[in-house]
Amino acid sequence: MCFHNSMSAKAIKLAARYGRKSDIVEIYQDILNEQYHVNAFNFPKYPIITTSDEVQVFNWGLIPFWVKTEEDAEEIRRMTLNARADTIFEKPSFREPIMKKRCIVPSTGYFEWRHEESKKIPYYIYLKDEPIFSMAGIYDRWLDKETGEEYDTFSIITTNTNLLTDYIHNTKHRMPAILSKEDEEKWLNPDLQKADIVSLLKPYDADKMNAYIIESDFIKKAPTDPTILQRA
Predict the structure, then answer these.
(1) What total number of domains does the chain contain?
(2) How far apart are CA 197 and CA 175, in angstroms?
(3) What whole-number distance in Å separates Cα of residue 65 and Cα of residue 47?
(4) Which of 63, 88, 113, 156 has the fewest CB atoms found within 10 Å of its own CB?
(5) How far apart are CA 208 and CA 205, in angstroms?
(6) Who's near 10: CB < 8 A, 6+ residues apart?
(7) Cβ count within 10 A of residue 147
(8) The domain containing residue 102 runs over which residues?
(9) pLDDT above 90 covers what percent of the chain?
(10) Which of 66, 78, 80, 81 is nearest to 145 (CA)?
(11) CB atoms within 10 A of CB 198
């Protein structure tokens, strides 16, 4: 699954990449600036691309609009950090957002672990020629009726692994659904039909990706030969 992301681009650069304004992101700059490791289980604020003309800032962990209490919201968002492409149209939390509330989750890379007996080996995975790339996401807005406060939240969609990511994520065999540049605005179109949505949620080309082993503290990097991974 995809619970550990990276967004190391500054607000201005991120906004320019997607042709959006950066006003909102700049308000949260102290929180968002150059986040090398973003842990989903902290339900962090994160820059998101929608049909809006500016970069949005949502919390990771989707809270469906129909949730009734804050207690229910706290519980459900722990289970909605990711949404599986193969069940997304059936799950109550996701079936409305996938049709009308799709978003892009910008990334400069993400983290995953390979399991070798009792060892867990962390990898940093990224795109070779795209410093900032797009993960497919969905979002929703929840109104806390007790306080009147609104919460914008999102989930990253996952799909089957490709040859590279299957070697790394060798337990659950999942990877984020990554969009090509050509498909980004298409993905955001609220009038997109189900068949077209499904066609975009596929494993990304392994030849366009790369990965290297990192230390558990996400600081010291030790590059490895990606051709070895692709042959494994």
Answers:
(1) 1
(2) 17
(3) 20
(4) 113
(5) 6
(6) 33, 34
(7) 8
(8) 4-231
(9) 77
(10) 66
(11) 14
Tokens standing for 57? 């800032």
Beta-carbon contacts of residue 33 (< 8 Å; ≥ 6 apart): 10, 11
> Could you tell me if 185 and 142 are in contact, meaning their C-beta atoms sit under 8 angstroms apart?
no
Let me know: does 135 contact 107? Beta carbons within 8 Å.
yes
CA atoms within 13 A on the CB side of 64: 17
Q: How far apart are alpha carbons 99 and 167 in whole angstroms?
A: 32
Range of weakest confidence among 64-73, 113-122, 144-153, 210-219? 210-219
> What would the two tokens of residue 136 be?
């497919």
Give the C-alpha separation, 28 to 175, whole Å.
Answer: 28
> How many angstroms separate the CA atoms of 116 and 129, rounded?
30
**Please, are residues 102 and 136 in contact by the beta-carbon 8 Å criterion?**
yes
Taking residues 138-167, what's their average pLDDT?
Answer: 96
CATH code, 199 = 3.90.1680.10
- Per-residue pLDDT of 40-54, as tens digits, reads 999 999 999 999 999
User: What six digits make up the tokens of 83?
Assistant: 């949404």
- Residue 170 CB burial class (10 angstroms; 0-12, 13-18, ≥19): middle
The string of DSSP codes covering 18-86 is: HT-B-HHHHHTHHHHTTEEEEEGGG--EEEEB-SSSB-EEEEES---TT--SHHHHHHHGGG-SEEETT
